[in-house]
Amino acid sequence: MSAVQATATVTGRAHDEIPDHDEIRGGDAFHLVMRPGLDFVPDSDGRRVIVVDRVNGRQLRMAPSAADLLRSLDGTHTRASLAADLGVADPAVVDRALARFAELELTTTIADAARLPEPKAPRRWGYRPPGILELTILNPARLLAACAPVGRALASRAGAALGAAVTVGGLAHFALAGAGALHELDRPASLPVLVALLVAMVTTTFVHELGHGLSLVRGGGRVHRLGVMLMYGSPAMFCDVSEAWRLPRRERLLVALAGIRVHLATAGLSGAIAPLLPHGGARQLAAALVVSNLLMGAVNLCPFVKFDGYLALIGWLDRPNLRSQSMEDAGRAAAVAVFGGRLDRRPSLRRVLFGAACAVTAPALVTSAFLNYQAFALVVLGPVGSVLVLAVVGLAGFLGLRKAVRWFRLAGEHGAGPLRRSAGALALAALVAAVLYGVTVPRTVTSVYASTPQGPVMVLPADTGADRLAGHRVSLQASGMVLHPGTGEAVVCGGAVSRPVSASAGSPVVIGVDAQISRTVVPLCTDGPPARSDGLTSVHLDDVPLGSWLVGTFLAPAWSQLF
User: Fold this and answer.
1) Is the bond preceding residue 248 a cis peptide, omega within 30 degrees?
2) Paired residues of 51 in beta bridges
3) What is residue 308's predicted lDDT score, i.e. its pLDDT?
4) Cystine design at 159: which of 146, 154, 321, 382 (Cβ 3.0–4.6 Å)?
């Protein structure tokens, strides 16, 4: 294989897209040498080599000829000798390959190599964009070795059959006979049940990660890191199974799906037990474990972010950079569609659609996490929280604008003239304005209701006046542990008054202390007493333009607290 082909194998791009780096050579002798901290292992297919970067914690696959070129860089070769060793007539091919190695930080200079310290252990902290922060806790090699017999038993045919029977049979039993257990989730949970659920889910998540590690060890790989992370604002655990890329395709798939199998088996076991338990906390806990583990399994199957489903997909397709390459294709297609130009290579529609889904899903998860933590930041952190919220909103706006500027420039690189790009920019601005002011969304007010001696009342939110709610219909819902079925309807039929209400009204957790606090409320008129003495309320006020909704949801609460 030529160095051109080798370079394309490393980068996933054609050789004419690799930039020339004339500064990497002086005279006929190359000053570049292979950077310390690189190991070479054969790929499972026998046709490629995996370069393990112990310093940066990554792996790169390349053709054997590219690996030979990298390993031969010791500062003593000339361009001609390197080209001769590779069987290439044009030394410029070597330049392009070495330029790509430099981009990937696989090389350094002779002088710098002498000053580089020995490779250190991977950092305990790590960040993976756009929203994952990792903290390594331990090297789980001993723990996985101790659990290896269990992993082998579960991976055997008998173990796999037993796991499938528990999963399918348990979920079928819950679906057919678990209606009563499911209703346990539309009532508040006691504090012991909530704590037990938290402990059970943390334990299941830990076993989930051990499942990844055991599958990798069984296939002959090693696991070096186990830890915790903040994944789009939610706490979780992780197990570094990057060595799965050295395994055959089927083993990679088993490693990626091992954690999801743990969640499904836990849901099946809980589903088999829940209908058999009497009414109470134990049955509520079992039903909550069914729903929680099914939800975790479904989320992990999402192929558009770097969850287990995506790892299974790229492992099976043998395309480690599928997400980034598809997003790049989608970005090029969007840039040309909006600002003009012509693509040199027409990407497949499937790649573009997949890339667009990937580009949308991650921001959606970040937005969801932001909404979950926005109230906490504003209430607990006060002005500091307001500054943080406004900073995050400003950063999101900046990133969106930067993306548009990149598309504008990319269209120019693909042949679009200034006039066509300017017209595209105006059209894009008009489209955004039309969406912000032409698309309407419902504006709702959510709160809680409680029963008082004078009748049911709705607790008035701090930023909502009673005059805005007068005469509106109110939907009443149960404040269940998981589910919130409707319990009736009411109408706001009076002005704001101050009355004592239960501090736990509308809470999904029963603390056991019935404290009364004075709150500003509005009376509710109903045809009969609500099915539940307290719960949640939702009021549809009107429909507003999307832009007004965004300002009121993301900007106004933080801005009003500061100014």
Assistant:
1) no
2) 40, 60
3) 92
4) 154
Q: Estimate to the nearest angstrom the gap between the alpha carbon of 215 and the chain centroid.
A: 23
The CATH-assigned architecture of domain 3-115 is Alpha-Beta Complex (3.90)
pLDDT at 116: 59
Taking the C-alpha atoms of residue 549 and residue 541, their distance in angstroms, rounded to an integer, is 12
Model pLDDT for residues 283-340, shown as the tens digit of each residue: 999 999 999 999 999 999 999 988 899 999 998 988 888 998 999 999 999 999 999 9
Tokens representing 96 are: 């392009």
263 phi, psi to nearest 5 deg: -65, -40
Instruction: Name the β-bridge partners of 456.
Output: 451
* E-only strand ranges, 479-515: 486-492, 497-502, 509-510
Which tokens go with 294?
């099914």
Give the contacts of 494 (CB within 8 A, at least 6 positions apart).
522, 523
Structural tokens at position 467: 């005059």
Query: 436: closest CA among 528, 308, 343, 549?
Result: 549
Question: Top-level CATH class of 441-544?
Answer: mainly beta
Torsion of CA 65, 70, 73, 77, to 10 degrees: 30
Question: Which residues make up the CATH 3.90.930.60 domain(s) of the chain?
Answer: 3-115
Mean per-residue pLDDT, 352-379: 85
**CATH 2.40.30, the chain: domain bounds:** 441-544
**Amino acid 272: pLDDT:** 95
